[in-house]
Amino acid sequence: MAERIVNRLGPKLTVQISLVVSAPIYLVMALAPNWITLACAIGLSQFAGLTWNSVSVSYRQRTIPDAMLGRVNSLYRLLAWGMMPMGLILSGLIVRYGEPIIGRSNALNLPFFTASAGALILGIIGWQALGRGFQSR
């Protein structure tokens, strides 16, 4: 499906949308009234992530010289996968320090609200940066 989306929207708009969709998805995860809504939000998040990966990997393969591609992919994976434990630690700290103030149930949602705000900021900054990067290609 990523190919169809790219053919219709172009690679620039595809990655821009794949990036900004994270903010509302995290908000839906925090406010999900039931497991079905949560499952749909997670599914949409995974779909956006897979679409992003399809475009970004093929873009790197086309634009990075073969001699550098392995290094660039390694750095990309280090940053992407390496930040996941940091997010987990930060989420735990957010819950720990939020729980005494707003209770455990509400504190468990705070990481999702925080992720939504962070994704919104990243989406705004990233939208412009991705727009500039894909215009030159």
Explain how this protein is built.
With 137 residues, the protein is an all-alpha fold. The model has no long low-confidence stretch (mean pLDDT 92).
Distance between the termini: 22 Å
Structural class, from helix and strand content?
Answer: mainly alpha
Name the beta content range.
under 5%
Range of helix content? over 70%
Q: Report low-confidence residues grouped into runs of 5 or more.
A: none
Mean pLDDT across all amino acids: 92
Tell the overall outline: globular
* Whole-angstrom Rg: 17 Å
- Number of self-contained structural domains: 1
Number of strands: 0
Largest sheet: none
Order of helices and strands: HHHHHHH
Tally of separate helices: 7
